[in-house]
Amino acid sequence: MSRKKERLYHWIFAILAFASLFFLVGISIILFKEGLPIFQKVDFFDFIFGKSWYPTYDPAEFGILPLILASVWVTFGALLVCVPLGIGSALYIHEIAGSKQRAVLKPLIEILAGIPSIIYGFFAMAIMSPFLQKLLNLPTGLCAFTASLVLGIMAVPTVCSLAEDALGFVPNSFREASFAVGANRWQTLTQVVIPAAGSGISTAVILGMSRAIGETMTVLMAAGGAAVIPKSFFEPVRPMTATIAAEMGEAVMGSSHYHALFAIGLILFIITFIFNIAAELISRRFRIKLGLAR
Amino acid sequence: MRRSNLPQNLGFLLLWICMITTLFFLLALLFFIVSKGIRIISWEFLTQGPRQFMTQGGIAPAIVGTIYLTMGAIIFALPLGLACAIYLCEYSPKSFIVNLIRIGINNLAGVPSVVFGLFGLAVFVKFFGFGVSILSGALTLGILVLPGIISSTQEALLAVPQSLREASLAVGATHWQTIKKIVLPSALPGILTGVILSIGRVAGETAPILFTAATFYKKGYPDSVFSEVMALPYHIYALMTEGTHPIRQTEIAYGSALVLVFLVLVISILAIIVRQRQRIIYVH
Question: Tens digit of pLDDT for each residue in A227-282?
């Protein structure tokens, strides 16, 4: 009797455990099903490399190159902010700060991570953009530069806490060995700790990048929204996520526009999927390198 | 030896600057939102609906809507997430399938939030015909938060010492009894921390509810799970981008942002406190 009950529980948990896998598969199926029909109307290469995005014109044009480039620019800009700040902060917290400082700094970084993206978007729109517009004398404060900056700040906690984890995996014996041969703290940091944590830190960067490219509300509010190929960082742009968020409300169900937006979602999904798999593979190798593989 | 001190000092200074810059942005963000938002906050603002084309009144329906959506999402995701984590930690034989589930969870965690919105639109709003509603939004948010609940629960379960399980099995308890009576109670604070953090995350998400649940204005409070709903994060977005009184609306958006930030901060501080208590229990 009791054995039967045990087996029953086992099966219930096993079935429920498949749920998340089921949802991931479900999401990919839906994206393919709703996204692929656009390629019956528009050639795949014209879709990806087409230079004009006029989904509501007649005849409509579905070229998403401006949107892809906008995402790439903004993500790249965000990396310039979040990589030095995130890794620098992680090194500071983990290698330099005393335990008292650490007890304050870690929760603060966590709080920064918990602030919703809409708040960053609002901050960008209400405060940063008027400020930057005045400071740099721009025609508009809502541009790739503002979006990159805010997106970068937003990704700092992600990069920081993952980089900190990576530093935590470096055994203390490495540091002690380095001190023992006469290296000072800075030499130990740059020549022993950072190389040892290197692939763990690169995982942090990849996941930060993945977060930045998939972020929606911040870029929707801060990037300005012009679907043209970006020429400078100070022009309004419209990244892929912002395009979906801004236009899905008006797209007629089953229209080419609707399918095109799902196809953009599919491309985003594939990009972040590749980033995540890459991060997973690198971190697995990292654990093996430090002898932490389970 | 003396020569090598200069690079060390410069290097430490550089890292210190990185840290300070990060903190500066956090404080600037909080400072602006608190100082400008606090002027708007009043009892009326928190307890009444908007009036006069969003220029008067408050944000009560948006607060209530956010609470409904968050509760719905957690009710949906919590049992699934707990079961999944329990299976992976307590039952799973190390096999190909378990690895597959792990990879599935990691990737689900990395899916952009707007893509969850697309999924919710195609599946809950259109296919199941729930329409733009609390139900569609809560289910979409639930899927979004599922990986977070699973991985925090997993961490909490892994932190329970193996000896506790062995002791329980040694005195004749079955596997399920051990999980129910020994493992889950010991892991409870950790699980709770994860759930609280998930609540904070769900409450602030905007992109997934853009086309599954949210509306800019709805008279009164939602009366069923099938009705559209105002939500705090969406309300901020709409105030900034729609409507006809941008200056007055920005002021109200400051107030709404302050309420949202306050909610999320209280939630994350609560989570940090719960976790620190748990650490103390385990150390001694």
Answer: 888 888 888 899 999 999 999 988 888 888 999 999 999 999 999 999 988 888 88
Q: Is the peptide bond before A59 cis (omega within 30 degrees of 0)?
A: yes
B206 and chain A in contact, CB less than 8 A? yes
Does residue B244 lie in a domain region? no
Chain B 154-173, residues with CB within 8 Å of chain A CB atoms: none
Q: Is residue B91 part of a domain?
A: yes
pLDDT for position B280: 60
Which residues in chain A have Cβ-Cβ distances shorter than 8 Å to B125? none
Instruction: Supply the range of the domain harboring residue B108.
Output: 60-233
CB A91 within 8 A of CB A167: yes
Residue of A nearest to B22 (CA): A85
- Nearest Cβ partner for A280 among B100, B103, B108: B103
The predicted complex's ipTM stands at: 0.89
Q: Is residue B164 part of a domain?
A: yes
> What pLDDT, on a 0 to 100 scale, did the predictor assign at position B284?
41
Nearest Cα residue to B205 out of B122, B117, B130: B117
Q: What's the number of CA atoms in the CB half-sphere (13 Å) around residue B50? A: 25
**In 3-state terms, what secondary structure has residue A293?**
coil
Q: For position A239, what pLDDT does the model report?
A: 93
pLDDT of residue B3 exceeding 70: no
Average pLDDT over residues B207-214: 88
Write the single-letter amino acid at A235.
Answer: E
Number of domains chain B contains: 1
- Does residue B102 have a pLDDT over 90? no
- Peptide bond between residue A139 and the one before it cis (omega within 30 degrees of 0): no
Domain with residue B74: its CATH number is 1.10.3720.10
Asked if pLDDT for residue B71 goes beyond 90, the answer is yes
Would residue B15 count as lying in a domain? no
Domains in chain A: boundaries: 44-53+66-289
Mean of pLDDT values over B37-60: 80
* Residue B172, min C-alpha distance to chain A (Å): 12
Evaluate if residue A158 carries a pLDDT over 60. yes
Question: B39-69 burial, b if ≥16 CB within 10 A, otherwise e?
Answer: ebbeeebeeebbeeebeebbbbbbbbbbebb
What mean pLDDT comes out for the span A74-96? Answer: 93
Distance (Å, rounded) from C-alpha A143 to C-alpha A140? 7
User: How far is the CA of A26 from the CAs of A20, B83, B123, B187, in angstroms?
Assistant: 9, 19, 9, 31
At the top level of CATH, the class of A44-53+66-289 is mainly alpha
Q: How many CB pairs under 8 A join A and B?
A: 259
Residue A64 near residue A48, CB atoms below 8 Å: yes
A138 phi, psi to nearest 5 deg: -95, 155
Task: Please report residues of A whose CB lies closer than 8 A to that of B233.
Answer: 116, 118, 217
Confidence of residue B101 (pLDDT cuts 50, 70, 90): confident
